[in-house]
Hints:
By secondary structure, the protein is an alpha/beta fold. It has helices at 18-36, 52-61, 66-77, 94-102, 127-138, 165-188, 194-198, 204-211; strands spanning 4-10, 41-47, 80-88, 91-92, 112-119, 142-143, 148-151.
Amino acid sequence: MAARRxxxxxxxxxxxxxxxxxxxxLAKETVAQLSERDIEATIDVIELRELAHDITxxxxxxxxxxxxxxxxxxxxxxxxxxxxxxxxxxxYSGLFKSFIDVLDPDGLGGKPVLIGANAGTVRHxxxxxxxxxxxxxxxxxxxxxxxxxxxxxxxxxxxDEVAPLSARVEKGAKELAEAIARKDAARSSDxxxxxxxxxxxxSFGHLLGGLAGE
Length: 214
């Protein structure tokens, strides 16, 4: 089976950043989930921090420098996205939104997306559903139902013991892997194979027989 490719968008501003840590955990678990389904996957990480000046130049001039153009093409050609942003002022970061703004509005149509976000406190967890998810819905991407939020406490001993970060990561990654697998199945069907439109075990003889009233 041909390898699937996942583009990972990380909008963290610091280095290292908890945003990148969350993005890496989501990517690793998604690859593991796909492997269980006999699907090989590779990861392309797009670190927006390194493209901040190029993104600004593109917004001002309408032209993407080479590094940014390569990142944009990686997003368009990927089989799925993992998009992770820090939460500032109850919404996605300006850098994250600026990168989305330089994409073609039709470039993400039908693409499976796993949304991740992080902030200092769990009070910002709803930002995934009221800010980030509508953004991808507008772009006609297919965000999986589980969004993964990580608060600062999730990286230490004071994390949520009822729904730990590891369980949330696994659930989101599983949903993305299932979405990718469904896309693979749809792409693998041969439109010229009679099975596609006649059904398994049937032939043109069955079709002709049915037309003849048999």
